[in-house]
Amino acid sequence: MSPLPLSISSQPCKNMSGELCSMRPLFGGAISTVFPQRFEDVSDIRQVPDHQEVFVDPSRDESLIFELLDFKTEVGDIGSASWFLNDLAREQDAEGFQLIEQSEVIETTGLSYRNIPAVATTAIGEMAISKGRQGREAQNLVRVYVANLRLKGVDTDVLVTTYEPILINPLSESADAVGSGLAVPASQSGKMPMCDVIKQSLSTFKVNDWNLFGSSA
Question: Does pTM top 0.85 for this prediction?
Answer without folding.
Answer: yes
